[in-house]
Amino acid sequence: MSKNTFGNALKITLFGESHGDMIGAVVDGLTPGVTVDAAVIDHQLSLRRPQGGISTSRREKDAWQIVSGVFEGKTTGTPLCLLIPNADTHSRDYMPGIARPGHADYTAQCKYHGYQDYRGGGHFSGRITAALVAVGGILLPALQQRGIEIGTHIACCAGIDDVPLDAAYMGEETVLREQLRALNTQGFPVLDAAAGERMRAAIETARAEGDSVGGVLESAIVGLPAGLGEPWFDSLESQLAHALFSIPAVKGVSFGEGFAISALRGREANDAFRMQGERVVTETNHNGGINGGISNGMPVTFRCAVKPTPSIYIEQPTVDYYNQKEETVVGKGRHDPCIVHRARVVVDSMSAIVVADALLQRYGNDALRAE
Amino acid sequence: MSKNTFGNALKITLFGESHGDMIGAVVDGLTPGVTVDAAVIDHQLSLRRPQGGISTSRREKDAWQIVSGVFEGKTTGTPLCLLIPNADTHSRDYMPGIARPGHADYTAQCKYHGYQDYRGGGHFSGRITAALVAVGGILLPALQQRGIEIGTHIACCAGIDDVPLDAAYMGEETVLREQLRALNTQGFPVLDAAAGERMRAAIETARAEGDSVGGVLESAIVGLPAGLGEPWFDSLESQLAHALFSIPAVKGVSFGEGFAISALRGREANDAFRMQGERVVTETNHNGGINGGISNGMPVTFRCAVKPTPSIYIEQPTVDYYNQKEETVVGKGRHDPCIVHRARVVVDSMSAIVVADALLQRYGNDALRAE
Amino acid sequence: MSKNTFGNALKITLFGESHGDMIGAVVDGLTPGVTVDAAVIDHQLSLRRPQGGISTSRREKDAWQIVSGVFEGKTTGTPLCLLIPNADTHSRDYMPGIARPGHADYTAQCKYHGYQDYRGGGHFSGRITAALVAVGGILLPALQQRGIEIGTHIACCAGIDDVPLDAAYMGEETVLREQLRALNTQGFPVLDAAAGERMRAAIETARAEGDSVGGVLESAIVGLPAGLGEPWFDSLESQLAHALFSIPAVKGVSFGEGFAISALRGREANDAFRMQGERVVTETNHNGGINGGISNGMPVTFRCAVKPTPSIYIEQPTVDYYNQKEETVVGKGRHDPCIVHRARVVVDSMSAIVVADALLQRYGNDALRAE
Amino acid sequence: MSKNTFGNALKITLFGESHGDMIGAVVDGLTPGVTVDAAVIDHQLSLRRPQGGISTSRREKDAWQIVSGVFEGKTTGTPLCLLIPNADTHSRDYMPGIARPGHADYTAQCKYHGYQDYRGGGHFSGRITAALVAVGGILLPALQQRGIEIGTHIACCAGIDDVPLDAAYMGEETVLREQLRALNTQGFPVLDAAAGERMRAAIETARAEGDSVGGVLESAIVGLPAGLGEPWFDSLESQLAHALFSIPAVKGVSFGEGFAISALRGREANDAFRMQGERVVTETNHNGGINGGISNGMPVTFRCAVKPTPSIYIEQPTVDYYNQKEETVVGKGRHDPCIVHRARVVVDSMSAIVVADALLQRYGNDALRAE
Lengths: 371, 371, 371, 371
Prior knowledge:
The first copy, chain A, is 28% helix and 22% strand. The relative contact order of chain A is 0.18. Chain A has 371 residues and is of the alpha+beta class. In chain A, the strands form 6 sheets. Chain A has a 5-stranded antiparallel beta sheet, covered by helices on one side. A 5-stranded antiparallel beta sheet of chain A has the order 9-8-10-16-11. The first copy, chain A, has a two-stranded antiparallel sheet with strand order 5-6. Chain A has helices at residues 38-48, 105-112, 129-145, 166-170, 173-183, 193-208, 236-244, 266-269, 340-363; strands at 5-6, 11-15, 22-28, 65-68, 70-71, 74-75, 80-85, 149-157, 160-161, 215-222, 250-255, 273-276, 279-282, 290-291, 294-295, 300-306, 316-320, 325-329. Chains in contact: A-B, A-C, A-D, B-C, B-D, C-D. At the A-C interface, strand 2, strand 3, strand 4, strand 6 and strand 7 of A face strand 2, strand 3, strand 4, strand 6 and strand 7 of C. Strand 11 of chain C pairs antiparallel with strand 11 of chain D.
């Protein structure tokens, strides 16, 4: 694992630039015989697609194509390459040399010495996540067949809170599964519809001001077997955080109670074990389903802090790094005033990748096939 | 990279159990010619050692020994193996089969099927971090010679706040370097001594009640060149978080403003660029020195949430997983009522490992040698 | 590194099936600013293309396309994805369930449980090497700009010997570079044209009999700096052999004198060092430019044994693994009576990948850019 | 995998120098519950130990110690660290700056810039293989419990041939298993005792002349399930060759008929499939049990060419690379006139590592436990 490839038994390699010919991903190590359902991939991509009023006006139809690794509708077990052509690009909106604050323009220059494709953020663009989402559309149903469900809601957006995913912290699996399934049908996933309306309104306000907002995503993985992860370095938290922090705009990741756990006493933070029939469960789930870096069979819960989109239509001071002089910049092009709701399905795809990899490491190459 | 080995160009492999013969680490990929200074290693280990009143009474002298990879006081460039014998162990305090809440006993059972060394937490014990800290004692001076300094303070403990590391967020490098150096001499590192006293008192109170407390560590890396990290998967945030989340008790990691950034507007969160002589800098540092996953030359800042130590002397309900029945457990043995101050030097060692690896990837095998 | 991804600092991921939509490769870790010359890629692909009389009649125009990682004719440093559509496929010639002797049909069944794309050998097909060859067309000129040249001749085919690449073993660099350049223009690369004619005639004889022949390729890498490779596991020989043994039909790899060195005495096998101006060189080069797994600055030389193509038009006993019964099979479809000459450019591409990776590990991310 | 760490699901890290304090290995990814039998480890080390008359007079008792990863006689599943102290060292026999021909002295200087431990070959010494052999002593019995047996004989030494391991090429498994077991009891493993006597005499003659000899080892792995290995890059041949070429003095590796297969016709080289009861087998085994990079269930066979030991007591021209001038050198210290017989058990250990890794990748983390 390193650079643009992630995973151990399952490996994902990403490629593409925002305004290049195509973006895509190669997935290696997949169990042979996994069903590839175009409708699910399309649905996942639809959850990532811009939404009128609260999103960019760039419209990509995401006409994905799998060119290898699938035969007669099922994975072969050899590398699967998925391609998505870029169609709706406006490259003239981008000026090389001007570092947009909060963006990767300047750091790309430092790393790539001016050879980077600067158009639309190039390889740093959120556009690349479309390939990840399509991969999620293959992995998520395979996990679901093994009883593992994944979902995310907008816990907070523009300072407005959704109700928390309490079932995950109380180990109410049946309720939790229903909540996750409901969220997976929503383009703007919230548990409390009224809170969602207020969030949308706040996004539109920010947009009207040329500004942007951020938020917090809260996720749960239910049905994970106990015993996944490693004591050191490859703890399940390490692997999930590694994947999640590569999503553009994520600046914080926490598990279970997260930062709030640091203010508890030990007797409050510990999750007491008890028997539920023949199964060992915990009374509470402050530790987010992970003890010592390894899954304990309870729902794995985590939160991602998403910063406000850096692309804004307000003049900001910056530098022209070609000419080493100060400049100002004001956003051009088409941008999202908020990406929190769109990032949700990227988070779920990353979770699916990490979980699938952990299963394949633990149970071997055929671990993803339905019994 | 995977399992108990971490890193790309620099690889660290950890081994050992709390009550086994020895713990240790192998470090591979080190630049040849790096000075190994026993006094620095001893100092770093002293920062991790238990402190009277607020720590466990286990006393390990940490008589480390390097058995390979160092010749005439300098690294050879071949794998360095560092060993630390365990001396002060009380194994009879541990009962197999009883899952201590908040600990890895049960998850270890799920992963290792009863073959794990259960004594003192075995391979999951914080004891193993002594080897990481000793490795930090080799890497940190080598980084310092290249102008890179790393340090951490207790931003919050038992709900009591230290003053923030403001210099890091305002890019005042000279002030920040002085603060980090001062912190690196303190066994209980705070910027505000009075806050530190209140924290210590709170730890002693928790101890008296048989309970434990947690906290938040805030770190800075200053002097990092711009251009380290990868756009996807191996973002600098991903690599740091991967390492940090494998430290026992860390349940949250955030960069720059962290979770608070999610409540800002874009125009507040963006860090405007400006020229400082010939150097590009940012006015503010809300993004913690990282844009698009790549260092921008400003101080890298991050926070780790540390949960309260799970070992407490209060009766808790749990299960006996050998006999599949419910039980109660009350802490025996010697435990820390707080590990936040001791974890600090582990965090710095992890940072040093990630930064050294990033430099070696970027500049090649000789990147750690002083000019 | 693992599965279908190879390399450390430079990573190559292969995908595609013989009769699928496209084959291709993703190359990650490339130095930004490397020139991509379509004419060189086309030339390299032409060396791999079937030749009338001694090759298959499948005709692929290899209309490659780079969809990411190249901007304005130079590498960006982000992942480069190269695609080659499959055009001329005759899938009906392949019967699932019948294991062609010497082929991967049966082992694919054991690994992929019947989900593999069996048409034309699927992912095991030599067709996939076209992507490797195209990648070689990017790396080889970059290496040449750093003074590193790579080439291969047919040391033996159908039992007929070419003259050996003596200049490589005597350290005559100027002569060797000329020989390699000349070989790189030949579709059937030999030093002795008359021997080449006899080899071609032997291939045509085998073809007429429905049979096939093999051979030995001898390669040299000249201009490699001393100091590349690792003492254990990642010796330069290990890395080259790893790559070379994944070329279909390669069943042996040896360095320097190869198996013949085992019959020498120590005083014969040792290569005496001497000064050549300020440079340390060896008098002879029995060790093929590698001591202790690390390059010594002399030409790196190696040989690959290529087995006769398993596809023959002669009836052979085999099994039907679907029905668990014995069967006979006779070759259908279009096949090569010899692939030795076509495999040559695959060997050179593999060498280029390993050498480029070693340089990037040793000298860092910008190691492939011309000064 | 890279540098001094090898493997995917099973990872081996080597460390140590010939005249340092200790050598050793860390093994990560082992199935928990594997029995560790000191007598087997001792036996394996005894096969590597120098033999009077035909070996060095350095006498190491190989007092190995396992300091982690084993509890109550069984592997825990966490990293196992095995240490072997160096005892019998004569460091004054080594002069820094003088490059011994055929050795790594000069290449170590190029890579490590003079910081390497030059004494006794340092990290390049065959001494390090003792740790690999001890690891083999853990893995080989675990594989044997799953029906997988591994063994090697001296196919050729000093130009004298043993009889070939015919049973491996004819698929006579019962005979082959008996032969391998017999070989594993011999310090100088040959099938034809008379040939062995002639080889020993030839080694003694070379020794008397201050010279050295090489040879060829032929190995077989029997009982391997079909379906291990990957189509590209991580073919079973690639993985074995990678490991084998990191053994000092190995200059060639071939599978099945090896280089001789290149002179066969396709109809001779192909191994016809047939049914043996319900099992698919091949009539012959020219391909050494591997098709398309993947095991086919037949014995895996391979040969390693071992060069004559470079340490000889004959004056040789060389250079002093400290002073950039020509010199002569004559062997001092205690050296082997032949290491072929000692290298045998290193080859078997490497095979065990590769096979165990392949099983763990294929079948998951518990693959090495006896049913």
